[in-house]
Amino acid sequence: MLTPDFDLLMMRRALDLARLGTGTARPNPLVGCVITHEGRIIGEGWHRQYGGPHAEVNAVAAVADPILLPHSRAYVTLEPCSHHGKTPPCADLLIEKGIPEVVVCNLDPNPLVAGRGLAKLREAGITVETGVLEHEGRWLNRRFFTFQEKKRPYVVLKWAETADGYLAGPYYQSVPISGDLARVAVHQWRAEEQAILVGTRTALHDNPHLTVRDWPGPNPTRIVIDKNLSLPPTHHLFNGQQPTVVYTYRERATKNNVGFVMLSEAEDLFPQIFNNLYQRNVQSVLVEGGPTVLNSLLKDGLWDEIRVLRSPKRLGGGVSAPKPGLSGLREHCQLSEDELFVYVNGANK
């Protein structure tokens, strides 16, 4: 007889599988599936690529002896879909294969699903259990849940600061702060988020590429705030090598893979930006801006996660890092000589 501990073990395996789709499944959620028979895994899979087969399809295909499926138990990290999208409904597949028991981590907040998948399974006589490792599942798919529930992207603020609390030189000149391992971590974060945002001053002084170079994965869409279109067109952000969106108060036509979105000066800046990104189906944004952008988002509470890299180096003066007085510390670890602090915004849970 299967035990609750076995269910937890199998769902943890499904969550680990789901995580393998990071960066490639988006904007779809991360989903993993494990199929067992008499306490033994007979098939497993995950959603590998947007537009490709879902986790349940890959798990069923991995079962060497399909005759076992009508006597099996499926563990899925997210409610099986019930609608036709780029692929057929996974709920229909589980029903077709005669799988009698399905254990689900999270319900799908997408209005196209939202309980319909589970209802379809139950109507077909399948025993359904929900809420197994629910909190872990929500954290794994925090970008997807925020996008669906709050109608905006998941916002990650990131900055590197010295031991004496500075993030740039006295005149905003870029200075090396973090070490090599921290730089690799930042490029991993870029690959994990759908977009990356900087303000005018950071773009002007740092002339960044905002690409993924020290980690395998896709480049994020580049987001630049340039209210008065003052940035030089020769900067890396305008090289057309990846999609770039400029938010501005001036009108300009799209050119060379760079789009310009004119905002209203009469309305708050970031709600307009996040609403536009929502319309573009951008589910997460890594903010690598300077103190003006960071402090504005902190002041308005428009953030979900903060990652601070603290170096042992000292500058003795310069541009001060934000001092938000944060609670909600989720993680604290060492990255070689640097410390990483990760905070979550309890107000946005």
UniProtKB/TrEMBL annotation:
Pathway: Cofactor biosynthesis; riboflavin biosynthesis; 5-amino-6-(D-ribitylamino)uracil from GTP: step 2/4; Cofactor biosynthesis; riboflavin biosynthesis; 5-amino-6-(D-ribitylamino)uracil from GTP: step 3/4. Its cofactor is Zn(2+). Keywords: Hydrolase, Metal-binding, Multifunctional enzyme, NADP, Oxidoreductase, Riboflavin biosynthesis, Zinc. Pfam families: dCMP_cyt_deam_1, RibD_C. Residues 5-129 form the CMP/dCMP-type deaminase domain. Zn(2+) binds at H54, C81, C90. It comes from the Bacteria. Binds 1 zinc ion. The keyword Oxidoreductase applies. It catalyses: 2,5-diamino-6-hydroxy-4-(5-phosphoribosylamino)-pyrimidine + H2O + H(+) = 5-amino-6-(5-phospho-D-ribosylamino)uracil + NH4(+); 5-amino-6-(5-phospho-D-ribitylamino)uracil + NADP(+) = 5-amino-6-(5-phospho-D-ribosylamino)uracil + NADPH + H(+). One of its GO terms (molecular function) is diaminohydroxyphosphoribosylaminopyrimidine deaminase activity. Substrate binds at S174, R190, D206, L210, R213, E288. GO terms for biological process: riboflavin biosynthetic process. Its EC number is 3.5.4.26, 1.1.1.193. NADP(+) binds at A160, T202, G290, P291, T292, V293, L294, N295, S296. The active site is at E56. Coiled coil: none annotated. Converts 2,5-diamino-6-(ribosylamino)-4(3h)-pyrimidinone 5'-phosphate into 5-amino-6-(ribosylamino)-2,4(1h,3h)-pyrimidinedione 5'-phosphate. PANTHER family: 2,5-DIAMINO-6-RIBOSYLAMINO-4(3H)-PYRIMIDINONE 5'-PHOSPHATE REDUCTASE, DIHYDROFOLATE REDUCTASE FAMILY PROTEIN (AFU_ORTHOLOGUE AFUA_8G06820). In the C-terminal section; belongs to the HTP reductase family. This is Riboflavin biosynthesis protein RibD. It comes from Hymenobacter sediminicola. The gene is ribD.
